[in-house]
Amino acid sequence: MLFIRFKSTAPKYGWKESLKLWFNHVxxxxxxxxxxxxxxxxxxxYYDREIEGxxxxxxxxxxxxxxxxxxxxxxxxxxxxxxxxxxxxxxSSGWWFKNIGFLAKAGDTTVHALDLxxxxxxxxxGPSLPDNKTRLxxxxxxxxxxxxxxxxxxxxxxxxxxxxxxNLKKYLKNQxxxxxxxVNFYVDAIEEWRxxxxxxxxxxxxxxxxxxxxxxYCIKYPEAVRRLVLASPGGVERxxxxxxxxxYRNINGDITMACSYSPADYxxxxxxxxxxPGFQALWYMRMPTFLPVRLLGPVAVRLLMSRNIEKFxxxxxxxxxxxxxxxxxxxxxxxxxxxxxxxAIMRIFDSSTMAKIPILDKLExxxxxxxxxxxxxxxxxxxxxxxxxxxxxxxxxxxxxLKIVNGGGHNMYLDNPAEFNRLVVEFLK
Length: 429
Prior knowledge:
Layout: H1 15-27, H2 31-43, E1 50-51, E2 54-62, E3 68-76, E4 82-86, H3 100-107, E5 110-114, E6 138-139, E7 146-147, E8 156-157, E9 160-163, H4 165-172, H5 175-196, E10 202-207, H6 209-220, E11 225-231, E12 255-258, H7 277-285, H8 291-296, H9 298-312, H10 321-335, H11 341-348, E13 369-375, H12 382-393, E14 400-405, H13 412-415, H14 417-428
Parallel strand pairs: 4-5, 4-10, 10-11, 11-13, 13-14
Antiparallel strand pairs: 1-2, 2-3, 3-5, 6-9, 7-8, 9-12
């Protein structure tokens, strides 16, 4: 995920550069494609040309409803296997630029790094999506919230909390159909892409939001995926937002729960107590994520570019100035345009990134062998992944394992690409 932080100690991106970049974007309708091609050309020497039997290109596959999915495709001359890569929220195929080439060479496979609908170079438009904007009111004593940073830096725990009957029933109304509709919008687009490209089966590598959608894709189309790599997938943990909670089947009065430290429990609040009320309000208003970037023009460019530079220079593996500049510009150009996906995530997750239908409640239908990867400093709860792996390994017909990338955060594939690439390739052998 990509967040804008307005108070930053990042190296400042100059006003002259910001104005130039903003003007380039508004005056050039193909600025996103130009930024994409520049980044890919730097990352892949065989981009748009063949070297030693390998060729990379950007391919657009038409879908129904006048939509299309764009991908970075790395084709090996005689490869028969396929690896599909799904990015996270506010990201796109270019975020894998330190991984695509390695996976293609090491596995002798054709790699397809997709832009999900509404992201990157894929169609920005989409169908109208149903919604339930009711905000679940979780009532607790603010003065008794403890930051359990020894367990996880994002874990905040009050003693207990209460859900009011009337609000809870309103929150639950039609939520199943809303979530399923939104998830299927993405899942069915991926399936249409697969069929249109005549791919029988592939291995899937998916990050964050892509990981959440990837699990649902595997469940709906189990024959299409051979093996599954989940990099810090979103929506694994249970919480009061889970509409699958058995306690919600027969609601008779208010519900009070003691808070749990375990993401396997429905009384797990995670980072929710630390989310600012203003951010929660904007989330439930469905304010498009990048609307401020569009409205603030060069001001937003300067803030966003400075934030990107600060964020990605934390890693010793991401220090080349030209590479960093190309990537930061790519992130700006491919995110600033309006998109159906800006608010779609708000229908399936709460503002604290808790899923309304958590992955932990869908595992019995997940049959693909899986690898779950988290960063050492990941803001996602790796204990949720550990609980999922433990559950999967108790089931017949499947297996799972969990790995931690040293020095990595949520985007561990960028923070420590060498270790991430090695783990993925070893798993997919």
